[in-house]
Amino acid sequence: MSTKEQLIIDIQELLNSHENISTTTINPDLLVFMDEKTLISIIGSLLDQKETHVENNIQWLEQFKKDKNN
Length: 70
Fold this sequence. Notes:
Layout: H1 3-15, H2 28-31, H3 36-69
């Protein structure tokens, strides 16, 4: 398996790691024209989005706990 093929698989797995989201499949032919740097950038963006989502959930939970205790 090439590095590009592995990166495409990694992107697909990141997309499918979100809860309550339908399974996503990527036709590798759609991403094959991208270079490794672009694919890595996509992975970075997906990881940033996931981190932001987690942080927002933590903030909401902390606020919920404060409101509940008052």
